[in-house]
Write a structure and sequence with these properties.
single chain; 417 residues; alpha/beta; FAD/NAD(P)-binding domain; Enolase-like, domain 1; 3 domains; 5-stranded parallel beta sheet; 11 helices; 22% helix; binds flavin-adenine dinucleotide; flavoprotein
Length: 417
């Protein structure tokens, strides 16, 4: 008996690598494959009808108008054509038949692979199934994940409009800063008393909150949203325990959910993300996963972790290529990320845990400082705020036992520590 999938036309080509998901990890994986001498077929299957692009500017420079869409791609469209990487844009991978090594596609075709790399990223958490928030699907309630979302949001960033942002994570705070710069009235709501405190601790969270308040953002922390309603004058009403807040526009920025469905249906081991080893191989040796969806074993930290950051997507893209090329490389680097909000730019590196002690070098009030996190006398993580070209050095300090007084003494040259 023939398998149902064989009724679909299969792309006739030499077997090679199929990457599902046309984001940052995909772009860097195919680039590293070709740079590493891989000569077999390479295909990217991508739901979005866009050449792979970087998402960080979507909440910052793109929204502010200082970086146009055509500058978001890490590699130009020509590179893919010149390097025989087939970009199948606007096509979704619908299922994976792991035993046949075949991916079924939304255009009713299928494609066979020798190696399959899943890089499907995350989607925005919605207010319905994800957060039980009535009204989340009303017109004017937006989310931000894709270039298309960012274009829609940008069109609405008109001076004097009222934007309410539900969620004070990185994307919520970044969009708050961008919208405020565009002259909107911005209100940020979160049930947390201090934004970003879970990720970065109360000291830094308070610093960011003060920056937003100083720039005119209405910060209503400790406020839980029960739903979103329609007002009589065409405005939206964001309902909270302390009253309704009128809005022309609402941004739901309440986190992201990994796009794991393909992996689950393919029978791969999935926890929050797709479980992969230090070489990004899943429980099926022909299938790898990378970027936001990968729950990967980090050899330096000795545990699996899933990281939703730009640097991780780039590095894991390259690592997946190394694994396919047969190189013995591992996921051994420390997490890194950055953010820009108003005049604050920062970079973080390391593995901060909740109980780690924050040690500030410099004065936070000056806007330029470094925070080290210390665990049992050893530096576990560090962050440079408005101080540049030091993050590589901070990375080299992780794991060192340097006395707190030495870290804080501005008389000590940082680069000598
Ligand atoms: C607005 C925004 C701002 C950010 N800012 C920062 C920042 O300042 N600093 C930082 O470090 N990180 C930031 N990030 C995070 C960073 O962009 C992500 O970690 C990174 O994009 C992850 O790359 P990825 O390739 O794993 O997934 P993505 O870039 O999300 O790409 C996944 C792609 O797969 C596609 N896809 C999903 N399912 C299928 C399917 N079945 N078939 C085909 N295609 C599929 C999706 O449509 C998507 O295009 C930001 C993210 C966003 C959304």
């Amino acid at each position: 008996m023939e398998a149902a999938s064989s009724a679909r036309p299969t792309t006739q080509q030499e077997l090679g690598t199929v990457v599902v998901g046309g984001g940052l990890a995909a772009a860097h994986c195919v680039r590293a494959l070709r740079d590493g001498g891989y000569t077999k077929a390479v295909t990217i299957i991508a739901t979005e009808d866009e050449v792979p692009y970087e998402r960080p500017p979507l909440s910052k420079e793109f929204l502010q108008g200082s970086k146009p869409a055509q500058e978001l791609a890490p590699f130009p469209a020509d590179w893919y054509a010149e390097n025989k990487v087939v970009l199948r844009l606007g096509i979704t991978a619908e299922s994976v038949d792991a035993s046949a090594k075949r991916v079924e596609l939304s255009d009713s075709s299928s494609i066979d692979y020798e190696h399959l790399v899943l890089a499907t990223g995350c989607r925005s958490r919605l207010g319905g199934r994800d957060a039980n928030m009535p009204g989340w699907d009303l017109p004017g309630v937006l989310t931000l994940r894709s270039l298309e979302d960012a274009r829609g949001l940008k069109d609405h960033l008109v001076s004097d409009k009222a934007l309410v942002i539900i969620g004070a994570g990185w994307i919520g705070m970044e969009v708050g800063a961008s919208a405020r710069a565009a002259g909107l009235e911005v209100t940020v709501l979160t049930p947390d008393e201090v934004p970003l405190s879970t990720a970065m601790g109360a000291d830094f969270g308070s610093h960011v909150a003060q920056l937003h308040i100083a720039n005119g953002v209405q910060c209503r922390f400790g406020t839980k949203v029960s739903g979103i309603g329609q007002g009589i004058d065409g405005k939206l009403l964001v309902q909270t325990g302390t009253g309704d807040i009128p809005a022309d526009l609402v941004l739901l920025a309440i986190g992201a959910v990994p796009n794991n469905e393909l992996a689950v249906a393919a029978g791969l081991e999935v926890v929050t993300g797709v479980v992969v080893d230090a070489h990004l191989r899943s429980s099926d040796p022909s299938i790898l996963a990378m970027g936001d969806i990968a729950e990967a074993y980090n050899t330096t930290l000795g545990r699996t972790m899933r990281v939703e950051h730009w640097d991780n997507a780039i590095r894991q893209g390259k690592l997946a290529a190394a694994t396919i090329l047969g190189r013995d490389e591992s996921y051994d680097w420390l997490p890194y990320f950055f953010t820009d909000q108003f005049d604050l730019g920062m970079e973080y590196v390391g593995d901060r845990q909740t109980d780690d002690v924050a040690v500030v070098r410099g004065k936070m009030a000056s806007g330029e400082f470094i925070i080290f996190w210390v665990r049992e006398g050893t530096i576990s993580a560090a962050m440079n705020v408005n101080i540049w070209d030091v993050n590589d050095h901070l990375r080299s300090m992780i794991g060192k036992a340097i006395p707190v007084a030495t870290l804080q003494d501005m008389g000590n040259d940082l680069l000598s520590l």
